[in-house]
């Protein structure tokens, strides 16, 4: 799916308003003077632990889909992230890097578990967001459950993967050698438009579990789900800057992240081929680790093989340490 | 350890004019593996042709030909002295050894046998090899050996005190021994095979040097392991640091376990590449050995004639 | 008692490493080594001429004498090699059980051991490195890499925590000139063990041992095309990396070329690993075993003339022991023996090529211009060949080119620090991240530093240690992917989640 195409449609042509939606159809001319007017949410990006508009002042609109509760009008304005927003997000992620990596693995696991708890308590809100983003009701329900379970899965992985990928190296000599995994640093992620929630959770959480921080470009097809998820992040003890979520056009933002020398790795495997190749080329300027399309299908994110050690391992460095053994 | 000694262990004995400055700055730590890697690397130096002949000839000149046995007799010592004086009869290119090393009772025999040869007589003393006697006994041992004609005294340190942390006792005994030596040169045997680690060897080396030893020496030959290239390197490094700090050159004597010409060349490589030219002299480097000399002579003959030698071609003394 | 140094540097006792006892020349006998005057390409199990019929010379950098001429592979030759590798993958190698692949790789390991002396001599003649290094480091490690990886071939189901895996297919491998045979072993052994076939492109200044390795592969009777060797310069390597039939590109070399390769494979499905440059900090604390640290410093930068990606080229010394370390380092350098690489007592051999020598000279000149103080070991340089005396700079600013750029030569930049935090900050203040050294007697400090250094390999109280069981590779712009150990197998397999 081309996120570029979607964005253009949303931005340049006013979407057809669904005037038959339940909230507006109570009287023949569309108004119920006695009805309570809902408080609509301003959707913002999540950078450095704060909800922000784009520094550029630009926005795009999203809407349509099947309304299923919630307070929003049919069309909402979402920030269209810019190059400078990407820069700000990288600064935030870089600033959070040492603190996040320096926490104990146990503590990272507790924070991710807290995230799962918050997501569980906001299941309804996430489900509504997904439905408004275009998912059918039953699928949205399953996606939210799966996403919460995936957060629990990675919460429990934070202090386990090291034992699976580390080694004691039986070197031929009087030295003790061992190799341990360490985070790469700041990872930039292009998240898929669909599945919006599982896409975010499945890409960002293994990166966090590994001790990295990240800048995620949410899929433009359903940015509201991303923002609701950010509200879960914001209330889950996750330090500011560990996850930063930009909304907008991935094709516009991601190449700037790919070029940014403070970004250590790129997770662009769910992007389209053209954007992937562009990010790979730009990433070469600072020898970035790039997870590109290597056989995984986005559809598999919904299943059990949408998670695993491999998702964590891709954004780990191996550090080998030697020391003599003597008296 | 007495309370008096524990005070001394920090400040040294007030009775001595130059107390050992106990570990300020502390001796540098020694990394066992890296030391052993270094000596292994230097053991791969390829010493051929002229370098081999020159090195082995130097090794003969540096040798303290040694016998230290309960069954030593004047006859045995006379034979050894003859060998030290003229290691290879009929080949004047082979020099005399540096010294013979014997027990005090045999010093007069050796002294008489070596008169006019330039070969020195070294005597072990200080209740060799254990050193486990009262200090006055050890000092009288030293004085008697010197009176009997010893040019050099090879003393043993009190390893028990060393390992008990009573460094002042170790220091004071060496200083007292030095005083008792009078004109004789003092070699301080650390008995490294009993010290347990290179860190302690390093510390003992510094104490031996600071307390007045002219040489530091690895071993009595009665304890295994005796001299090794690695422990020798550690001691050479202590000598080097003392020289860099003070300009004073201390000698080194590996003893025990050096049996082959190849080993001897390895030690000379250590000296050459650790301390440089000034130490490539019998005045500052000695081998304490008995079996080594014949192997060196065999190799020298092989180099001279191009023919591998038989052990029976060389006198066994 | 440590030496005390006066700031004036005057009247200090000095050691004299002179000529009291000289080592005689001890050249390794080369009489049983015959280098063929002309070398063809090894493609599909056969030796064949290049399409272009063009050959280039490979010379001995210590004498500038021509050793042989070597085929220059062009795109057509590379295509032939990739197709041969593909056929070998489809027909033989991917169908062969791991236990059978293993036995072929064990055969290679054994043959390297049997031919070790010949290989070491040729390595030294072609590349200029001291024979003691090719004999004692390159060759034993090359054999060990094949031996180690052979054993993995039938145990890969255990390697990935039970996850499904498969080989990648055809691996295009481009290797540098600093450890020619060893780098070939690092590349070829894991690739074969994991079931891939390979096209290997050795460096143009040091092709001979890779060709001898091809001969070993031939004599070990591997199926034709499982290992192919194409010789040539950058264009040959570029053709290999760009070839659409290649499933995996593995490159060891400069960061600049690595970036070009990464750009070239962008948008393809090729899997890529890069092992690139470095500017490692070798950090000496005041509580270090100083004399052993000196050995680590010397080995860290002068081993293989400093042609080592993980060379400890930035010495960070705690300021309180700076003068002592520099004094001891100068003494130690006085004993370094530079000259005929075939002499068994040579410590420092020839610079690999005229081009590399020019690069070293340029950066050393930049260091002098920046105001750093230069010291070069007082060794006479031979008249013929490419030589550079072991050199260090003191008073180097962190901003100086010689503190930031990889020199890839026997040139050390010495900087000081006051606290562990400052040492760490300076050590990590580089875009490279391949390796680092820490010298201290305090275990907790070593772990504290090791944990925080952004480097793929950290040596505590040692330096430049390598082992096939020990993963090697960089952080940041020093590349990605690991070579050696279980982790190194990931470079040659596709593993499930």
Write out the strand line-up for the largest beta sheet of chain A, numbering strands in chain order: 9-8-7-10-11
Question: At the third CATH level, what is the topology name of chain A?
Answer: Aldehyde Dehydrogenase, Chain A, domain 1
Record the strand order, biggest sheet of chain C.
14-15-16-13-12-17-18
Number of beta strands of chain C:
20
Helix content of chain A: 40-55%
N-to-C order of helices and strands of chain A: HEEEEHHHHHEEEHEHEHEHEHE
> How many domain regions of chain C?
2
Mean pLDDT of chain A: 89
Rg of chain A (CA only): 21 Å
Determine and state the CATH class of the largest domain in chain C.
Alpha Beta
Assembly level: heterotrimer
Number of helices of chain C: 15
The level of helicity of chain C is 25-40%
Describe the structure.
The complex is a heterotrimer of chains A (327), B (317) and C (497). Chain A is globular and about 90 Å long. With 327 residues, chain A is α/β, with parallel strands linked by helices. Chain A has eleven helices and twelve strands. In chain A, strand 1 and strand 2 (50-52) form a beta hairpin. Residues 1-25 of chain A have low confidence and may be disordered. Chain B is α/β, with parallel strands linked by helices and 317 residues long. Chain B has a single domain (30-307), classed as Aldolase class I (TIM Barrel). Chain B has helices at residues 3-11, 32-42, 49-61, 74-85, 107-113, 135-147, 159-164, 167-181, 198-210, 229-246, 261-274, 292-305; strands at 63-66, 99-102, 120-124, 152-156, 185-189, 215-217, 251-253, 287-289. Chain B has an eight-stranded parallel β-sheet. Chain C is an alpha/beta fold. Chain C folds into two domains: 38-276 and 475-495, 3-Layer(aba) Sandwich (Aldehyde Dehydrogenase, Chain A, domain 1), CATH 3.40.605; 281-460, 3-Layer(aba) Sandwich (Aldehyde Dehydrogenase, Chain A, domain 2), CATH 3.40.309. Helix content of chain C is 37%, strand content 17%. Chain C contains 15 helices and 20 strands. Chain C has helices spanning 75-91, 98-114, 116-127, 131-152, 180-193, 208-219, 234-242, 255-265, 290-302, 322-333, 354-369, 401-404, 420-428, 443-452, 485-488; strands at residues 38-39, 41-43, 46-48, 55-59, 66-71, 165-167, 170-174, 197-201, 227-229, 248-252, 271-275, 281-284, 314-318, 373-376, 391-394, 411-417, 435-439, 457-460, 479-480, 493-495. In chain C, strand 7, helix 5 and strand 8 form a beta-alpha-beta unit. Chains in contact: A-B, A-C, B-C. Chain B binds chain C through residues 21, 25, 27-31, 33-35, 37-38, 44-52, 54-55, 58, 206, 210, 237, 240-247, 268, 272-273, 275-278, 280, and chain C through 1-4, 12-13, 15-26, 132, 136, 287-292, 295-296, 327, 331, 334-335, 344-345, 441, 461-462.
């Amino acid at each position: 799916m081309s996120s570029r195409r979607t964005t253009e449609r949303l931005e340049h042509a006013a979407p057809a308003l669904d005037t038959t939606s339940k909230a507006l159809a109570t009287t023949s001319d569309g108004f119920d003077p006695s009805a309570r007017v809902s408080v609509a949410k301003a959707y913002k990006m999540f950078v450095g632990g704060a909800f922000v508009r784009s520094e550029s002042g630009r926005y795009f609109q999203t809407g349509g889909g099947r309304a299923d509760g919630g307070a929003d009008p049919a069309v909402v304005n979402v920030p269209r992230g810019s190059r400078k927003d990407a820069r700000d997000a990288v600064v935030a992620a870089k600033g959070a890097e040492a603190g996040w990596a320096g926490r104990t693995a146990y503590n990272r696991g507790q924070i991710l578990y807290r995230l799962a708890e918050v997501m569980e308590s906001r299941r309804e809100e996430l489900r509504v967001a997904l439905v408004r983003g275009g998912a059918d009701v039953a699928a949205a329900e399953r996606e939210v459950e799966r996403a919460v379970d995936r957060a629990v899965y990675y919460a429990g992985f934070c202090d386990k993967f090291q034992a699976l990928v580390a080694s004691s190296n039986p070197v031929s000599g009087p030295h003790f050698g061992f190799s341990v995994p360490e985070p790469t640093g700041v990872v930039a992620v292009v998240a898929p438009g669909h599945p919006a929630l599982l896409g975010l959770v499945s890409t960002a959480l293994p990166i966090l579990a590994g001790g990295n921080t990240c800048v995620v470009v949410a899929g433009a097809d359903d940015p509201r789900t991303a923002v609701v998820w950010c509200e879960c992040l914001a209330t889950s003890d996750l330090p500011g800057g560990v996850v930063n979520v930009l909304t907008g056009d991935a094709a516009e933002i991601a190449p700037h992240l790919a070029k940014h020398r403070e970004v250590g790795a790129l997770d662009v495997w769910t992007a389209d081929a053209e954007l992937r190749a562009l990010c790979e080329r730009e990433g070469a300027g600072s020898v970035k680790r790039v997870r590109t399309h290597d056989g995984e299908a986005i559809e598999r994110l919904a299943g059990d093989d949408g998670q695993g050690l491999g998702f964590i391992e891709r954004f780990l460095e191996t550090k080998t340490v030697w020391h003599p053994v003597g008296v | 350890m007495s309370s008096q000694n524990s005070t001394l262990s920090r400040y040294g004995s007030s009775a001595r004019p130059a107390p050992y400055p106990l570990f300020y700055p502390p001796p540098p730590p020694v990394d066992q593996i890296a030391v052993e890697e270094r000596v292994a690397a230097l053991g791969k130096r390829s010493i051929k042709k002229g370098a081999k002949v020159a090195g082995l000839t130097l090794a003969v000149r540096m040798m303290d030909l040694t016998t230290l046995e309960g069954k030593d007799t004047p006859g045995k010592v006379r034979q050894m002295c003859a060998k030290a004086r003229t290691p290879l009869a009929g080949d004047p290119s082979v020099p005399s050894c540096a010294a013979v090393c014997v027990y005090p009772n045999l010093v007069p025999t050796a002294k008489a046998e070596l008169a006019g040869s330039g070969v020195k007589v070294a005597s072990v003393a200080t209740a060799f090899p254990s050193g486990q006697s009262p200090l006055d006994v050890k000092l009288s041992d030293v004085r008697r050996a010197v009176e009997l004609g010893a040019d050099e005294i090879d003393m043993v340190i009190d390893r028990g005190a060393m390992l008990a942390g009573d460094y002042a006792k170790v220091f004071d005994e060496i200083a007292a021994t030095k005083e008792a030596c009078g004109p004789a040169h003092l070699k301080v045997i650390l008995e490294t095979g009993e010290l347990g680690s290179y860190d302690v060897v390093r510390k003992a080396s510094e104490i031996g040097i600071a307390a007045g030893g002219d040489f530091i020496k690895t071993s009595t030959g009665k304890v295994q392991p005796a001299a090794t290239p690695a422990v020798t390197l550690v001691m050479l490094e202590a000598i080097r640091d003392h020289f860099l700090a003070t300009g004073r050159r201390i000698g080194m004597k590996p003893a025990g376990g050096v049996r082959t010409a190849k080993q001897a060349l390895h030690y000379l490589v250590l000296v050459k590449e650790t301390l440089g030219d000034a130490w490539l002299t019998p005045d500052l480097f000695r081998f304490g050995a008995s079996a080594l000399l014949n192997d060196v002579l065999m190799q020298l003959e092989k180099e001279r004639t191009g023919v591998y030698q038989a052990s029976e071609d060389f006198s066994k003394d | 008692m440590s030496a005390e140094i006066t700031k004036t540097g005057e009247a200090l006792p000095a050691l004299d490493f002179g000529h009291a006892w000289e080592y005689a020349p001890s050249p390794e006998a080369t009489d049983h080594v015959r280098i063929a005057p002309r070398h063809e390409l090894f493609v599909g199990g056969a030796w064949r001429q290049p399409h272009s019929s063009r050959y280039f010379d490979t010379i001995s950098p210590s004498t500038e004498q021509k050793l042989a001429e070597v085929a220059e592979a062009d795109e057509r030759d590379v295509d032939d090699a990739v197709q041969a590798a593909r056929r070998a993958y489809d027909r033989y190698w991917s169908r062969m059980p791991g236990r059978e692949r293993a036995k072929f790789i064990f055969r290679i390991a054994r043959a390297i051991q049997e031919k070790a002396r010949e290989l070491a001599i040729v390595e030294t003649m072609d590349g200029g490195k001291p024979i003691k290094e090719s004999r004692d480091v390159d060759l034993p490690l090359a054999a060990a890499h094949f031996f180690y990886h052979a054993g993995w071939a039938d145990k890969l189901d255990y390697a990935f925590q039970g996850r499904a895996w498969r080989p990648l297919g055809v691996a295009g491998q481009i290797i540098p000139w600093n450890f020619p045979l060893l780098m070939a072993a690092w590349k070829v052994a894991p690739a074969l063990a994991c079931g891939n076939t390979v096209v290997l492109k050795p460096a143009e200044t040091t092709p001979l041992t890779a060709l001898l390795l091809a001969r070993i592969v031939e004599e070990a009777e591997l199926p034709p095309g499982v290992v192919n060797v194409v010789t040539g310069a950058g264009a040959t390597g570029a053709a290999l990396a760009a070839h659409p039939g290649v499933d995996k590109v593995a490159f060891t070399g400069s960061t600049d070329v690595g970036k070009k390769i990464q750009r070239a494979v962008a948008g393809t499905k090729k899997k890529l690993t890069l092992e690139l440059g470095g500017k490692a900090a070798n950090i000496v604390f005041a509580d270090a075993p100083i004399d052993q640290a000196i050995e680590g410093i010397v080995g860290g930068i002068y081993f293989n003339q400093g042609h080592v990606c993980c060379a400890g080229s930035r010495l960070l010394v705690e300021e309180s022991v700076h003068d002592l370390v520099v004094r001891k380092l100068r003494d130690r350098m006085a004993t370094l023996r530079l000259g005929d690489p075939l002499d068994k007592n040579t410590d420092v051999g020839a610079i690999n090529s005229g081009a590399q020598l020019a690069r070293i000279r340029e950066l050393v000149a930049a260091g002098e211009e920046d105001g750093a103080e230069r010291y070069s070991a007082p060794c006479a340089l031979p008249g013929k060949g490419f030589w550079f005396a072991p050199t260090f700079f003191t008073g180097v600013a962190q901003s100086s080119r010689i503190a930031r750029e990889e020199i890839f030569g026997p040139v050390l930049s010495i900087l000081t620090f006051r606290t562990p935090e400052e040492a760490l900050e300076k050590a990590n203040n580089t875009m490279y991240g391949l390796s680092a050294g820490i010298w201290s007697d305090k275990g907790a400090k070593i772990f504290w530093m090791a944990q925080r250094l952004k480097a793929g390999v950290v040596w505590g109280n040692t330096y430049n240690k390598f082992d096939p069981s020990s993963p090697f590779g960089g952080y940041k712009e020093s590349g990605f992917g690991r070579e050696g150990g279980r982790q190194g197998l990931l470079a040659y397999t596709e593993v499930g989640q």
